[in-house]
Amino acid sequence: MRRFFIGSAAAALIGLLLAGVAYWAYWHFHARFQPVTINRNQAQIQRLLDEASWVSDGAGGQAVYIVSYRDSASAQRYEREEAAKLRAAGVEVRYIVFARADREGLAQSTAAERATVAELWLSRDWMLHQRWMATPSRSWTAAGVPQADGNLARTAVVDASRQFDEQLSLLLKQAGVRVTYPLILWRDRQGFLKACACVDSRSWSALRDDLSAPDRVGQPAPDEEVINPVEEPLQIEPVQPAAPADDGALPYPKLSPTPAAAAPSEPYAPYPLARPEPLPGPFAPTAPQPQPRPQSQPQARPQARPPAPSQPRPRPPATTRHAPQAQKQDDTTFY
Known about the structure:
The chain is of the alpha+beta class. It has a domain at 12-211: Glutaredoxin. Helix content is 32%, strand content 8%. The chain has helices spanning 2-29, 42-51, 73-81, 83-88, 111-123, 126-134, 152-174, 204-211, and strands at 36-37, 62-68, 91-97, 183-187, 193-197. A hairpin with a 5-residue loop joins strand 4 (183-187) and strand 5 (193-197). Helix 5 (111-123) packs across helix 7. The longest helix is centred in the first third of the chain and has 28 residues, at 2-29. The radius of gyration is 55 Å and the shape is elongated.
């Protein structure tokens, strides 16, 4: 009997131990990344979000706040994979970026990052935020942005971003939120304020469900037929000859192909042959008699060909001429 009680106690202890391990595993791998409904400090948290210098594209709609620093890999992944889905649901995504404070004398932010954070908090320039996020952090030099180091006003703005992060983290920890980045805050359909440390992608679906966001951007409706011309090859049916119409008309006769023309017996002359000249003498052909022309409208006469220029006549060779001499003539008798 004693052995039975000892075995039962050992089995109960082992069962409690296994239950504790299962609960710890669930909390460690699943529950700690799930959204938390904030029951404490709601007004203070909302006031901090409203007073912060967030930036957005100004699309309007329900506000979702994403708090992070520039080099957070999980925040960049969430922006790359989930931000478009939230915008498709008509949500205005508001970004709040801060510069991390130094830790044990080691700077956790660069001068270019601090200058950009100060400029975003002062100007709330959406295009600057887009260019900053699209550029690798090592390549970002903050060209054209005033430096924050050495500027008391801009340094105070950088410190204000750090104070905002410290106060928000303290209020969320008191409400039971495990603070990791990105921190995402929104209100559900009933108006309750929720927060999510969305490091793990398993928590993203709960946020999409609260905001009625699609799982994929551009996903077709369930009842819409999807036609993919790339995967379905085009079916080409052979053309069938049309049947003759039964209207009493004779069918069109089938013509045999025309045979190739026979080659000419004489070679083809590309130019007309020269006309033979008439024979001289009595063998010359009789000239044809002119036929009277029918009266018709006068036609323009062809212009006469200009006469060929006459060549100069050659002169005889020059000879020596002597003066005439007197000659005696016979007397002439006149009767």
